[in-house]
Structures
1.
Amino acid sequence: MKKALFIGIIIGAASTFGCATMAQQAPRVDIGYRHGNLRDAQEHIAQAWQLVSDAQIDNDYQLGGHAGRAKALLAQADEELRLAADVSNEHGR
């Protein structure tokens, strides 16, 4: 009995740790007002991220992994916008 409990605790801890490491950080708006269009796009990405998170909660995270993939792509788009603003800054624009 103790062995089964121990194994259950180990499996639970491992799955919790695995979910925590797979969790992605939500995009944040960090592009300045100097780049208004890029900032607006970044704000929309942050809003979309939140709506996808809401959908995951509403559907008990049973969306076939597609919502998680969408969030990964939103995070990638957020990073690309940040890089675009950085390049513009480097060129004095």
2.
Amino acid sequence: MQSDSDVRSQRIAAKAAAARLAQASWAMCSAAQRDLLLRNLAGRLRLSSDFVLQANAQDVQVALAEGYDAAFVDRLRLSNATLQGVADDVERVAALPDPLAWESEVLRLPSGLHLRRKAVPLGVLGVIYESRPNVTMDVAAAALKAGNAVVLRGGREARLSNLALMSVIQDALQDAGIAPALVSYIDEPERDAVLDLLRLQGLIDVVIPRGGKGLVDLCRQHARMPLIAGGAGVVHLYVDRQVDVERAVAVIRNAKAQRPSACNALDTLLVNAEVATVLLPALVPFLIEASVQVHAADSAADHLRAAGIQVHTLQTTDLDQEWLALQMNIVVVADLETAIAHIARHGNGHSEAILTDDPVAAARFLHQVDAAAVYHNASPRFSDGGQFGMGVEVAVSTSRLHPRGPVGPAELISMKWIGTGDYLARP
């Protein structure tokens, strides 16, 4: 007799196998057919917003009852405005250029072989994510645009929201005469369901974990297929000695408080010692108004306390912390070189920024800092697929191989070589 875990594994494998069959047909559809489906999907989402919000309200109620913190609930909660924005994003994806249209120029070799490269779908994506239910729609839209199938596995905390969104997607697929298996959802609460998915080499082509460090590490350890993955977004912003203090404070406010639960929100502010006596007091009104908990030591703590703000003593582990909340580290550094060295030691390649009016310092920072996205006089909060013109974001990849940075439809492709000859044999 089969165990419950064996039966679960078979159910998951069957969904992946069905997705692979559906993807083979979907990849043959034209760009116009793919875009029409996406526009219809956006329309269905708008009409179904009440249905989705009712499901989300139940998820939020359970999360509050179970004592999840405010940052988690913020990531979980949907609103009518949020859903309308998601629908707008799906339409933006439909309006993007076709990721599969690209072909290289033909290379004519002395052997008589003509070679070219062509964009093709990645195939079947396995996407594992946690509390953000909007990811269900974002990932589906990006995958479909690029001719892929996708098998989704969301967190249990957003289960009802995800199932409601999946209902909208499945209805849109059926209306278009497309196999619903093209976008599948693993409704299995056990943690081992993730491991089942990660073992499906040959059925799942690429796994994309979207969540915290624990989830990413689990996938890296157990996946039998390639990953598109990021790490914790420990984000730094360095304020150089030549800077417009008033405008710098506005960018810092945006980087920390615009959405503190996002992976591209500011975690550690590095301040050049020559500007610290002016910048740090100028920051205090914002820190108090936004109720930001500050972790600082030495001269940074002295400047802030003198300006009338409570400061938590900075611990060594704080410098490697992705806060995802209204908390931040503030560190005074001697110079640009010290700031770059600090980022190299404590950053993880997500998003880093410099505020300076010195073009030489900016150029050095942008060249030397190793991250998926680096910014000069701009907030790191721009590290987002929507802000990069991708319509939606599947993940922010911190790996060194393609893709790196925000991942949208254009990144969910591979390439193949096409060789043409005249009954050509290799000499």
3.
Amino acid sequence: MQDTGADIVKQRQLVGNIIIAVLTERISVKDGLLHFPKGCNDPSIHAAWHALCHYEADEDIKLKDLDYNNQQVELLEFIAFTFKDGEPLAQNIIDAYKPYYKEDDPISYDSGLKGFIKKLFRFVNF
């Protein structure tokens, strides 16, 4: 799937709206992650996906450490407002999440038949 510049801007705006919906508790983090654009090749969107995953995974730490919680919320707000105008994230934010990238991350799957086949092979290729 080849993303055009206009598609990427729309996808970033969508992701920004998803993050705001999660932060305002209109949707759950799980629902937010499920609504991210699939098969997207934008490193900024991949970093945002992982930031939201970390936000969910670190729930126990956030309850104990208010500063850590505030830092995560501020980062997600920054990502959402950067995406509002369709802008990419700063390279240092993208680089911070690169160690967590996997080829088979759910955000990497295309929608439709191509994505289904990719998911199927993920489970077949132990």
